[in-house]
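User: Okay, second chain of the day. Same drill as before: sequence in, structure tokens out.
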Amino acid sequence: MTDFKNTDPRLLTLGHRERQHLDGMMKRGASRRDVMGWLMAAGATTFASGTLFDGLAHAAAHTPKVGGKLIMAGDQHGPNDTLDPALFTSAVDYFRGRMFYGSLTRLTDSLGYEPELAEEVLSNDDATEWTFKIRRGVEFHDGKTLTADDVIYTMMRHMGEDSVSKAASLVAMVEKWEKVNDYEVKATLSSPNADLPIALGTFHFKILQDGTTDFATAVGTGPYRVKEFKPGVRAVGTRFENYWTEGGYLDELEHYGIGDSTARLNAFLAGDIDAMVNLPPKAINQVEGTDGKEIWALESGAYINIAPRQDMQPSGNMHLQRAMQYLQDRQRLVKGVFKGQASIGNDHPIAPAYFDHSPDIPQRELDPEKAKYHFEQSGIGSAAIPVVAAEVAPGAVEQCLFMQREGRKIGMNFDVKKVTTDGYWGAVWLKEPICVASWNMRPTANIMMTLAFKGSADWNETRWSSEKFDSMLTEVRGVTDAAKRKEMYHELQMMIHEDNGMAIPAFRNYVDAAASHVKGRTMVPLNNFGGAEAPLTLWRDDA
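Assistant: Same drill. Structure tokens below.
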């Protein structure tokens, strides 16, 4: 049994000498990419960080002050807003989840994990059995003490054919969860997965109290307890005085959505809100030049995309899909729309920000001649091609308008219908034949592809399915040979690039804005507001 309390799954295969070498690299200040490259060469398989809550010290560079209130504005909300972690869909859900709940593990700036409600994480030698020792003395908001029963209940909600969990595919390899004793649980896997503790630190695996079925409120172990929750309106939390560790410094934390980016910016500049997500790129200079206002930006592998469903028409037409990909004006998006706060996409989801990114896939460019060829082969002619778009992220609408403009030049008739962001994820996404989406980065390439591209995944937007892809996606989790792993991840990304049909023209940075008095900002590159980890560490300093 390997102890992961102060180590990482990638260290499964390292001996004493290799551990000494790694320690020396870290002390010398080696870059994350250098460290991860060495880990792969040494035969390791995942990356995480070290001791509990190292990130808190980073987030709070000065001693946090207790008290005050902050108002944080997201960009999407609607009647499907929920306090059920298994059903979380949008960034506002993820932020609320961090306000009110805790997880077995938490994710770090370096896209690793640290123990949270599990004080120790243990694995057998081939990562097919994981043991989580539950932290003692943790209270739920109603005074009940956290035990293994709560963890087992939570995890069982993500298992089985009848599970409603949006992230069930991330733990599909778990055959069973067992209670060892009141403060220890064990997961037995059907195949190796060194990424399991990282997956359990993502948004959907917040720990519930045993037997919870009513999500009108949230009774969690998080730094704030629910004062008010109205779906599509707002959530307000008050500090939980018995929170088990550092964090949760504010008297009150409010979070709600303002769908229109101009209205959101105006509210921020006027001081009506303390922070906002998705600052319009054209407003970056304005915010930077305003006293008391700052940019809160993170490089990431988040992306915008246009998703044509393969099980519907006309979106299922392979030649239409390829024409759409060749009509993407990627350079204009990155330079003109994002003002450089983005990088060019290549119709697959794994950006250079991921360790397992393949740089060897030929870049697909704007090419009207190739687009025209595929358009003619599609047989669609002058018929209108409906595309539904909402400003779910900067560039989401523009990518469609650019495609529409280029399409007109070759006779394609894209009918771009712009709708509001309010309720978009429940009413439009996964329902319309062609619509836009915005994806947050995930901590590993495997988690990203499992969540969005595995054939059985709930969030498989195009309904593309490949037995070879699904099999390889599972197999690569247990591969420790660096060369073989690289080859397999290249092939997985290549299959999406060639066969999925989705257009992914750009990877975007998270560019939020915050008032200067907003302290304790986190930098986890998986979502807005520092990976939605900020509720734990935020504090207010009006000095």
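The two ends are 50 Å apart (CA to CA).

User: Thanks, on to the next one.
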